[in-house]
Structure formats: C-alpha cells, structure tokens
Amino acid sequence: MPKRTDLKRIMVIGSGPIVIGQACEFDYSGTQAVKALKEEGYEVILVNSNPATIMTDPGLADRTYIEPIEPETVAAIVRKERPDAILPTLGGQTGLNTALELAKMGVLEECGVELIGANAEVIEKAESRELFRDAMERIGIAVPKSEIARSMDDVRRIAAELTFPLIIRPAFTLGGSGGGVAYNQEDLEKIGQAGLDASMTSEVLVEQSVLGWKEIEVEVVRDKKDNCIIICTIENMDPMGVHTGDSITVAPVQTLTSKETALVCEASKAIMREIGVENGGSNVQFGLNPKNGELVVIEMNPRVSRSSALASKATGFPIAKVSTKLAIGYTLDEIPNDITRDTMASFEPTIDYVVIKIPRFTFEKFAGAKDELTTSMKSVGETMAIGRTFKEALQKGMRSLEIGVTHLHMKKFDNASTEEMLAYIGEGTDDRIYAIAELLRRGTDPDAICKATMIDLLFIDILRHIVEMEKEIALKPFDLDTLKEAKHYGFCDRAVADCWNTTEDAVWNFRKENNLFPTYKMIDTCAAEYAADVSYLYSTYGEENESVASDRKKIIVLGSGPIRIGQGVEFDYSTVHAIWAIREAGYEAIIINNNPETVSTDYTCSDKLYFEPLTTEDVCNIIELEKPYGVIASLGGQTAINLAEPLRNRGVTIIGTDCEAIERAENRDSFEKVLSALNIPQPKGKAVTCVEDGIAAAAEIGYPVLVRPSFVLGGRAM
Length: 718
Hints:
38% of the residues lie in helices and 16% in strands.
C-alpha cells in the first residue's frame, strides 16, 4: 500500500536531555525519522530540548522547537502548529509518555491530531504493568507471578503473599528507573516507594523473582498487513537481576537450543499482535529457566530503544527508518533494503558473525558510589564490537571501553585472594568478568564460577579458552603462528606485548615485517547472499578482504567511542558535521567509531564506516589499507585527541588541529607557558609530574589548591 496522502504535517517528539537509560540512541532514531519523513515529502515539526544533537540542527526539520518536553509546552506547540499526526515512538520514554499525556488531556482530539506508529491504546497496553499482564494471560504466554500495587499498603500486602526476593517494576519508566530487587522488608519499603514516585501513574508491579534465569531480548518489526519479522535475538551474559542495559549482551543468542530460539521468536510475534503494534518496531524481553526451559515474558517496549539501536547497527537493518515508513502507511514488502537494493525490508536479516555490546559506567566520577548492578540501569553508554567469534568480539569490545583495560585482565584483581573473588562475583558488578578471568587463570573450577554467578557455562568456558591462550602466547615470543592464533582470539598488540614482555610498537613492527594485518568484512543484512551497496565494515583475521580501497583522496575522522560523563552526544554532532563537510568538498569520507547509539555509525552518514575500537593499533590497521590524505583527531573528544600523538609517531598525517597545538592546549605546563608569553593573567600554578613535587608546589602556592590532570576530559580525577 502506498504512503498516506491525507497527512501533510507530522510532529516528531524527541527525548530531551541525556540521562542514564536514555542516551544518544534517540538522536540516532529521531534523526532517521526526520530524514525519512522529509524524503517522503512531509513537513516535519520537531520538538526537542537537547542542543547537542544532530536532530535539532536547524536544517533537518522544517520547524524545530527547542523547548521542554512536557505536556503543557508540547500542547501549546500542537495548538499553534496543528500537525496532522504525531510520531511518538522514536523519542524514548520521554516522547512516549508526553504523547500519552496529550491524548489524556484531550489536546489531540481538540486539534484533530492522530498518533501514528503507536496509538494511545497500544502505548497503555504495553506500558501499564496491569494491562500488559492481562494481555499476556489472554494469549497464554506466562508472566512471573505478580500483582499491581498503587500504594505502599498494596506493596506490603502483595509482598506478604509472595516470597522474597521480589522485583519492583514501575510502569511508564525507562531503564528500570525507580525499580529494583527487594531481598527483605527494608528493601521493600525503600524500593516500593521509589517505584511509586517514579511511575507516571503511581503504579508498580510487585513480581516474584526469576533471578538467575537467562535473559533474552528480541527485536521485532510488524506492519499493518501482519508482516512480522525478527530483526535479531540478543542474549544477556548476566542472568536475570542485572538490567539488560548494564549487562554484556551478544547477538545472535549463543546458549539457546533451536527449539528455544524458535519459541521466543514466535512468542514475540504473538505479543506484537496482541498488544496491537502494527506500524513499527518493538523490543520484547524474556526470562528463560535454564533448568527446564520454562519461558516467561518480562516486558516489552512499543517503541525503539537502546537495544533497537544496537540491533540496527548489529544487522544493518535501520529499525527507526523502517518504523517511520511503516507509520506513514507503507508495508515491509514495499520498503527497499538500503544495503542490498535487491531485497525488501520484509527480508529478515541474517547474522554470520558475532556482535557484543559492553556497557560503559562512570562510577569513578562518584566517590563512594556502589557499583552493584541490579534491575535499575546505571550504565551511561555502551560500545559494540563485531568479530567472527565470541572470543574475538569480546576482546575488541574490552579495548573499546577506554577504562585502561586492553583485554580480559584488570590489575585490580591480581592481588585479591581466590576466596575474596569467589565472594565478589556472586553479585553483578561492572568489573566481575575480570575477576572471573583471574579465577580461571588460577585454575578455579568453571562449574564453581557458574554456580556463583549463574552465568551460563558456555560463556565461562569461552573466558577459560582466552586465559589459556594467554599462556600459549607467553611461551612463544615472536612466533608468527602463535601471533596469528592470538589475533583470531581477538588479542591486541598491547596484550600480546604484555605476554611477551616487550612493547606494543615491537609487536606492531613484527606484524608489519610479516604482513600480518586484518581483513575487513561487510555487514550486509543477508550473510553475503546478495551484493552490498554500502561499505559498512568490521575487522577480523581471515582470508578474503571485502574492503576495497579506492583511488580517491580520502580523509578519516575519528569518532568519540562510548558515551560517558563528560563525553556525550556533542562529539557525535561534531563528527557528523565533519563528515558532511568532507563529502561536500569532494573527498572520500571515512569514519571510525564503535558506539552503536550514534548518528555517526549510521552507514549512510559516510562513504565508509569502520566499526572498530579507537586504539592506535586498530586505527593504524585501517590506515595501512586506506592510505588516507589525513586523519582528523580534534573532533572526537578526548578519545580522538589522545590518539593524535601515537598516530603521528607512526607516520600518520594529522590534519586540522595538529599535535603541537593539542600539546599546547592539553598539557598544563605548555598551556601555562603560552598564557605567560601572551601576558594573559592566570591563577598561580605549577606543572608537576610526581606527588613530591606537587606537595612542594602546594606549599609554595598556599592551600587550597586545585589539581588539574593533563589530557583528560570533563575534569576527570581533578
């Protein structure tokens, strides 16, 4: 069916400021939505309050309102603009809740505005814990034993009928905000009240715990003709009890049988039909009992989510764009696949590689903050890595995090006792995978680790293979066959250098001498069944290279990696604008980044997209193939800035702000000298490189003194 011609003006509601649980993935989805609507000839009105986003660029929508996203303000804009429809499913929970409030206020009926993508009834049915539970019971899909509470008296009554631990899940919130696990009455009082306060409808679900079960997510898209496709399945490495946004996840699922995988996929489609989503994508989350295969549905999001962005980048299937097209009347069999051009969106994506997402936390910013992970999300961003195997993808993801870790090893656990670590891994934390690895190095029984963590034995066994490979590498320094095997395992040059007791540059030079470089494979949605029309690439150590370097003059722009406090969506904004300017100037524009939430990792943004870690080694591997005219390092935040000097030292041409200028600005001593030479007043200070000199300088200056590290972002460790 063709697009709707009765609609002329469509409003898109954004997600507002970045908060934990709602990051730049909604800039990606919102930007895709606006571009898709403009492509179809609609007039687009955008409401968003975040100035750092691509979607609020003046040239993107026809009218952009930088205004608070709350019902009264948006209602005033609706009354002024009189759009024919509002698309609420691409602005996270903020956009969805605001649209629902507009409907309840009668503003939509008053102004003759239609909700497209998901109507008020669908949103209510999916987001209300009570309505969703009733809907699941109607179609025979099990949910954990639970009851709705609308007051603390309700919470206490229900808890008395169930047994601890209990899960508190507020309605109409994002990232598990306000929820948690209550292990006792004290927890119940605290979390129950927080959940009621967080819920838009003062409604929480008090749910019997399924802690320790496997958690599975399914990304589904459905159209009005009931074409329903699975974009991908995602498995959490952590069991139920850790929010999926805080868990390492892998696509496709790794530990389910074919029968179990088929079961969750069919259940997801049945849920889409029952809830009534017929013009877009949804994310459905399940718990699966590893002992007997019992399946329960936990919740669904009738909108795009952070997992949708991950699934889009993992498969090459642009969920937000396709959902927008469905919302305006198209069906899946009418929307062309951007990558193949020969297939339609109704063709289910196929993954012949492994994709891993690792969350990024910023606990170091908050002294005394608990790094315990529960059902309420704490991660501020994430990185994605792609490899031919789980081992390769996991290690690429580790070095993409930028937390001082280059592989499956963290110095923190070197001196910890085995007993301490076995106790430590019993709770979800942001770093327990490194404790598990250290236990395996010491020969701890994988079954004991599995029992302590409830992480599937397959994942524990893969970690064991990686640490055993470390020992093999250490026994054979500068052995080419061993190095090749290490690269298949995902080990970087720095990790190999640690095993060989040498330098990263020595390993790099050894590889160059032996012409040992990665090949690059395309993400094409169809496992190479059809030819791809875009260059969306990841590295592996294999035979065939699918990245063909052109003869054009090319420029590489380094992205900013995972979102963290102090380095957010603003650097994605500058990176994307750089790419646009490079293309307009006639150069081939290449981007390297590893953040699945961003506009910069949309394969339509650049001429070539390399989804890779932002390390000296990984960037230099690409430079060896592409031979660019220059690399821009000044627009990707501190991540890119910190790569400038090591890249220059390997002969790479840094264009734009060069290393000398970066040094003068970022090095405290150099910057102080620049200000002195210019006779610009500055606070009295002294650059030091050791604690003793710092104490002497402080005594000379006089307390209080401010300590400012060089080459850090957002005042880290200041």
